[in-house]
Amino acid sequence: MPPSRLPRPRRYLVCEPRYFDVRYAINPWMRENTEVDLDLARSQWDTLVATYRDLGHTVETVAPEPGLPDMVFAANSVLVVEGRVFGSRFHAPQRQPEEALYAAWFKAAGFDVQQSLAVCEGEGDLVPVRGLVLAGTGFRTTTDAHREVQEFFGMPTISLQLVDPYFYHLDTALFVLDDENIAYYPDAFSPGSREVLQRLFPQALTATREDATAFGLNSVSDGQHVLVAPGATALIAQLTTHGYLPVPVDLSEFHKAGGGIKCCTQEIRA
Ligand code: ARG
To answer: Fewest CB atoms less than 10 Å from the CB: which of 133, 175, 239, 242?
Structure first.
Protein backbone atom coordinates (compact mmCIF):
# COMPACT_ATOMS: atom_id res chain seq x y z
CA MET A 1 0.00 0.00 0.00
CA PRO A 2 1.39 3.42 -0.89
CA PRO A 3 1.41 5.95 1.98
CA SER A 4 -1.59 8.29 2.13
CA ARG A 5 -0.74 11.93 1.56
CA LEU A 6 -2.31 15.06 2.99
CA PRO A 7 -2.93 18.20 0.93
CA ARG A 8 -2.31 21.68 2.39
CA PRO A 9 -4.39 24.61 1.04
CA ARG A 10 -2.28 27.09 -0.92
CA ARG A 11 -2.47 30.70 -2.05
CA TYR A 12 -1.42 31.24 -5.66
CA LEU A 13 -0.88 34.28 -7.87
CA VAL A 14 -1.37 33.92 -11.63
CA CYS A 15 -1.48 36.23 -14.65
CA GLU A 16 -3.96 35.63 -17.44
CA PRO A 17 -2.39 35.02 -20.87
CA ARG A 18 -4.24 37.86 -22.64
CA TYR A 19 -1.00 39.09 -24.27
CA PHE A 20 0.85 35.77 -24.26
CA ASP A 21 2.96 35.34 -27.40
CA VAL A 22 6.32 34.04 -28.62
CA ARG A 23 8.03 36.99 -30.35
CA TYR A 24 11.60 36.84 -29.02
CA ALA A 25 13.69 33.76 -28.12
CA ILE A 26 15.43 33.70 -24.71
CA ASN A 27 15.56 29.94 -24.13
CA PRO A 28 16.00 26.91 -26.45
CA TRP A 29 12.25 26.13 -26.49
CA MET A 30 11.44 29.48 -28.07
CA ARG A 31 11.60 30.33 -31.79
CA GLU A 32 11.19 33.95 -32.85
CA ASN A 33 7.67 34.75 -34.06
CA THR A 34 6.17 31.36 -33.37
CA GLU A 35 2.47 31.11 -34.01
CA VAL A 36 0.53 30.80 -30.78
CA ASP A 37 -3.11 29.71 -30.58
CA LEU A 38 -4.30 32.28 -28.07
CA ASP A 39 -7.76 30.71 -27.65
CA LEU A 40 -6.18 27.35 -26.86
CA ALA A 41 -3.67 28.99 -24.50
CA ARG A 42 -6.54 30.76 -22.78
CA SER A 43 -8.61 27.59 -22.33
CA GLN A 44 -5.58 25.60 -21.10
CA TRP A 45 -4.83 28.33 -18.58
CA ASP A 46 -8.49 28.52 -17.49
CA THR A 47 -8.39 24.77 -16.82
CA LEU A 48 -5.27 25.21 -14.67
CA VAL A 49 -6.95 27.92 -12.56
CA ALA A 50 -10.23 25.97 -12.30
CA THR A 51 -8.28 22.89 -11.17
CA TYR A 52 -6.58 24.83 -8.35
CA ARG A 53 -9.93 26.23 -7.23
CA ASP A 54 -11.65 22.82 -7.38
CA LEU A 55 -8.91 21.49 -5.11
CA GLY A 56 -9.70 24.24 -2.59
CA HIS A 57 -6.76 26.57 -3.26
CA THR A 58 -6.99 30.37 -3.37
CA VAL A 59 -6.05 31.89 -6.71
CA GLU A 60 -5.44 35.61 -7.18
CA THR A 61 -4.58 37.43 -10.39
CA VAL A 62 -2.26 40.23 -11.43
CA ALA A 63 -3.35 42.28 -14.45
CA PRO A 64 -1.50 41.40 -17.67
CA GLU A 65 0.23 44.18 -19.58
CA PRO A 66 0.35 44.55 -23.38
CA GLY A 67 3.86 44.06 -24.78
CA LEU A 68 4.88 41.63 -22.00
CA PRO A 69 4.16 38.21 -23.54
CA ASP A 70 6.01 36.28 -20.78
CA MET A 71 4.21 37.99 -17.90
CA VAL A 72 1.95 34.93 -17.71
CA PHE A 73 4.91 33.13 -16.09
CA ALA A 74 4.12 34.49 -12.65
CA ALA A 75 6.57 32.18 -10.88
CA ASN A 76 9.51 34.24 -12.07
CA SER A 77 8.43 37.45 -10.38
CA VAL A 78 9.31 36.93 -6.70
CA LEU A 79 9.98 34.39 -3.96
CA VAL A 80 7.64 34.61 -0.96
CA VAL A 81 8.38 32.75 2.27
CA GLU A 82 6.69 33.54 5.60
CA GLY A 83 5.15 36.64 4.05
CA ARG A 84 8.55 38.05 3.05
CA VAL A 85 8.79 38.99 -0.60
CA PHE A 86 12.06 39.00 -2.54
CA GLY A 87 11.52 40.64 -5.94
CA SER A 88 13.22 39.56 -9.14
CA ARG A 89 15.69 41.22 -11.46
CA PHE A 90 15.21 39.60 -14.86
CA HIS A 91 18.08 38.44 -17.04
CA ALA A 92 16.40 39.34 -20.36
CA PRO A 93 15.72 43.05 -20.98
CA GLN A 94 12.40 42.05 -22.59
CA ARG A 95 11.13 40.84 -19.21
CA GLN A 96 12.52 43.57 -16.96
CA PRO A 97 9.34 45.71 -17.05
CA GLU A 98 7.56 42.86 -15.24
CA GLU A 99 9.61 43.58 -12.09
CA ALA A 100 7.78 46.78 -11.17
CA LEU A 101 4.33 45.41 -12.08
CA TYR A 102 4.65 42.40 -9.80
CA ALA A 103 6.27 44.47 -7.03
CA ALA A 104 3.32 46.88 -7.24
CA TRP A 105 0.86 43.97 -6.92
CA PHE A 106 2.59 42.70 -3.77
CA LYS A 107 2.79 46.18 -2.24
CA ALA A 108 -0.92 46.74 -2.90
CA ALA A 109 -1.60 43.35 -1.28
CA GLY A 110 0.13 44.58 1.88
CA PHE A 111 3.63 43.10 1.53
CA ASP A 112 6.99 44.84 1.72
CA VAL A 113 9.11 43.96 -1.28
CA GLN A 114 12.89 43.78 -1.32
CA GLN A 115 14.19 43.87 -4.88
CA SER A 116 17.18 41.70 -5.76
CA LEU A 117 20.36 43.56 -6.74
CA ALA A 118 21.69 40.65 -8.80
CA VAL A 119 19.92 38.78 -11.61
CA CYS A 120 17.28 36.64 -9.96
CA GLU A 121 14.16 35.02 -11.42
CA GLY A 122 12.04 34.21 -8.38
CA GLU A 123 10.57 30.74 -8.03
CA GLY A 124 11.90 29.91 -11.46
CA ASP A 125 15.25 29.30 -9.74
CA LEU A 126 14.44 29.45 -6.01
CA VAL A 127 12.61 26.51 -4.48
CA PRO A 128 11.93 26.51 -0.73
CA VAL A 129 11.63 23.10 0.94
CA ARG A 130 12.31 21.75 4.43
CA GLY A 131 13.65 25.07 5.74
CA LEU A 132 16.13 25.37 2.86
CA VAL A 133 16.06 27.30 -0.37
CA LEU A 134 17.25 25.22 -3.33
CA ALA A 135 18.72 27.76 -5.74
CA GLY A 136 19.49 27.18 -9.40
CA THR A 137 22.22 29.00 -11.30
CA GLY A 138 23.96 28.69 -14.65
CA PHE A 139 21.52 30.37 -17.03
CA ARG A 140 19.51 33.03 -15.16
CA THR A 141 19.75 33.55 -11.39
CA THR A 142 23.32 34.28 -10.22
CA THR A 143 25.15 33.04 -7.13
CA ASP A 144 25.27 36.69 -5.96
CA ALA A 145 21.48 36.52 -5.83
CA HIS A 146 21.69 33.25 -3.87
CA ARG A 147 23.73 35.09 -1.22
CA GLU A 148 21.15 37.88 -1.11
CA VAL A 149 18.37 35.30 -0.73
CA GLN A 150 20.14 33.62 2.19
CA GLU A 151 20.66 36.96 3.91
CA PHE A 152 17.10 38.14 3.27
CA PHE A 153 15.25 35.01 4.41
CA GLY A 154 17.84 33.73 6.89
CA MET A 155 17.44 30.30 5.31
CA PRO A 156 20.32 28.08 4.19
CA THR A 157 20.45 28.56 0.44
CA ILE A 158 21.88 25.70 -1.55
CA SER A 159 23.39 26.65 -4.91
CA LEU A 160 22.76 24.05 -7.61
CA GLN A 161 24.49 24.24 -10.98
CA LEU A 162 22.21 23.75 -13.99
CA VAL A 163 24.05 22.45 -17.05
CA ASP A 164 21.45 21.79 -19.78
CA PRO A 165 20.09 24.89 -21.59
CA TYR A 166 16.71 23.17 -22.10
CA PHE A 167 16.39 23.17 -18.29
CA TYR A 168 17.45 26.77 -17.83
CA HIS A 169 15.37 27.37 -14.70
CA LEU A 170 15.52 25.13 -11.63
CA ASP A 171 11.73 24.70 -11.81
CA THR A 172 12.03 22.98 -15.19
CA ALA A 173 14.16 20.24 -13.57
CA LEU A 174 12.93 19.92 -9.98
CA PHE A 175 9.74 20.36 -7.96
CA VAL A 176 8.60 19.95 -4.39
CA LEU A 177 6.31 17.01 -3.69
CA ASP A 178 5.45 17.81 -0.06
CA ASP A 179 7.03 19.32 3.05
CA GLU A 180 9.83 16.71 2.97
CA ASN A 181 10.53 15.49 -0.51
CA ILE A 182 11.24 16.50 -4.10
CA ALA A 183 11.33 15.06 -7.62
CA TYR A 184 14.06 15.98 -10.12
CA TYR A 185 15.81 15.16 -13.37
CA PRO A 186 19.43 14.38 -12.40
CA ASP A 187 21.12 15.12 -15.74
CA ALA A 188 20.00 18.76 -15.62
CA PHE A 189 22.59 19.25 -12.84
CA SER A 190 26.39 19.22 -12.59
CA PRO A 191 27.87 16.08 -10.95
CA GLY A 192 28.53 17.94 -7.69
CA SER A 193 25.04 19.37 -7.53
CA ARG A 194 23.57 15.93 -8.23
CA GLU A 195 25.52 14.62 -5.25
CA VAL A 196 24.20 17.47 -3.08
CA LEU A 197 20.64 16.52 -4.04
CA GLN A 198 21.32 12.85 -3.28
CA ARG A 199 22.66 13.72 0.17
CA LEU A 200 19.81 16.09 1.04
CA PHE A 201 16.98 14.06 -0.49
CA PRO A 202 17.91 10.36 -0.56
CA GLN A 203 14.20 9.50 -0.96
CA ALA A 204 13.63 11.83 -3.93
CA LEU A 205 11.84 10.63 -7.04
CA THR A 206 14.09 10.90 -10.08
CA ALA A 207 12.65 11.43 -13.52
CA THR A 208 13.73 10.55 -17.05
CA ARG A 209 14.72 12.92 -19.83
CA GLU A 210 11.37 12.14 -21.51
CA ASP A 211 9.53 13.26 -18.36
CA ALA A 212 11.65 16.41 -18.20
CA THR A 213 11.22 17.38 -21.86
CA ALA A 214 7.46 16.89 -21.45
CA PHE A 215 7.68 19.58 -18.70
CA GLY A 216 6.92 16.94 -16.07
CA LEU A 217 9.27 18.52 -13.52
CA ASN A 218 7.48 21.85 -13.89
CA SER A 219 4.73 20.54 -11.63
CA VAL A 220 2.82 21.93 -8.67
CA SER A 221 1.95 19.73 -5.70
CA ASP A 222 -0.21 20.56 -2.68
CA GLY A 223 1.25 17.59 -0.83
CA GLN A 224 -1.25 15.14 -2.32
CA HIS A 225 -2.47 16.31 -5.74
CA VAL A 226 0.26 16.88 -8.30
CA LEU A 227 -0.70 19.01 -11.28
CA VAL A 228 1.54 17.54 -13.94
CA ALA A 229 2.00 17.68 -17.72
CA PRO A 230 0.18 14.69 -19.27
CA GLY A 231 3.20 13.76 -21.42
CA ALA A 232 5.28 12.88 -18.36
CA THR A 233 3.92 9.34 -18.32
CA ALA A 234 6.70 7.57 -16.41
CA LEU A 235 6.68 10.27 -13.72
CA ILE A 236 2.88 10.06 -13.46
CA ALA A 237 3.16 6.31 -12.84
CA GLN A 238 5.83 6.89 -10.17
CA LEU A 239 3.71 9.51 -8.42
CA THR A 240 0.82 7.06 -8.18
CA THR A 241 3.10 4.34 -6.79
CA HIS A 242 4.22 6.75 -4.07
CA GLY A 243 0.69 7.67 -3.00
CA TYR A 244 0.34 11.04 -4.75
CA LEU A 245 -2.67 11.82 -6.93
CA PRO A 246 -1.47 13.03 -10.35
CA VAL A 247 -3.81 15.57 -11.97
CA PRO A 248 -2.79 15.97 -15.63
CA VAL A 249 -3.13 19.54 -16.94
CA ASP A 250 -2.02 20.24 -20.50
CA LEU A 251 -0.29 23.60 -21.08
CA SER A 252 1.16 22.69 -24.50
CA GLU A 253 0.77 26.22 -25.92
CA PHE A 254 2.97 27.55 -23.12
CA HIS A 255 5.67 24.96 -23.80
CA LYS A 256 6.41 26.99 -26.97
CA ALA A 257 7.72 29.70 -24.63
CA GLY A 258 9.59 27.22 -22.43
CA GLY A 259 7.01 27.28 -19.66
CA GLY A 260 4.53 24.96 -18.00
CA ILE A 261 2.32 24.56 -14.94
CA LYS A 262 4.76 25.75 -12.28
CA CYS A 263 5.99 28.66 -14.39
CA CYS A 264 2.41 29.99 -14.49
CA THR A 265 1.99 29.67 -10.71
CA GLN A 266 3.50 31.88 -8.01
CA GLU A 267 2.97 30.58 -4.47
CA ILE A 268 2.35 33.09 -1.72
CA ARG A 269 3.54 31.46 1.52
CA ALA A 270 2.13 33.08 4.65
N1 ARG B 1 9.83 32.52 -21.88
C2 ARG B 1 10.05 32.59 -20.45
C3 ARG B 1 11.52 32.83 -20.18
O4 ARG B 1 12.35 32.31 -20.88
C5 ARG B 1 9.58 31.32 -19.80
C6 ARG B 1 9.67 31.35 -18.33
C7 ARG B 1 9.26 30.06 -17.71
N8 ARG B 1 9.17 30.16 -16.31
C9 ARG B 1 9.68 29.29 -15.42
N10 ARG B 1 9.40 29.47 -14.17
N11 ARG B 1 10.49 28.35 -15.77
O12 ARG B 1 11.86 33.57 -19.28
So the answer is: 242
Residue 267 buriedness (CB in 10 A; 0-12 / 13-18 / 19+): buried
d(CA 262, CA 265): 5
Q: How far is the CA of 259 from the centre of ligand 1 (A)?
A: 5
| CA end-to-end distance (rounded Å), the chain | 33
**158-191 confidence digits (pLDDT tens):** 999 999 999 999 999 999 999 999 999 999 999 9
CA 137 to chain centroid:
14
CA distances from 184 to 168, 170, 177 (A): 14, 9, 10
Q: Which domains does the chain have, with CATH numbers?
A: 11-267 (3.75.10.10)
Question: What is the CA(27)–ligand 1 centre distance, in A?
Answer: 8
Residues in CB range of 92: below 8 A, 6 or more apart? 24, 26
Strands 182-184 and 174-176: antiparallel
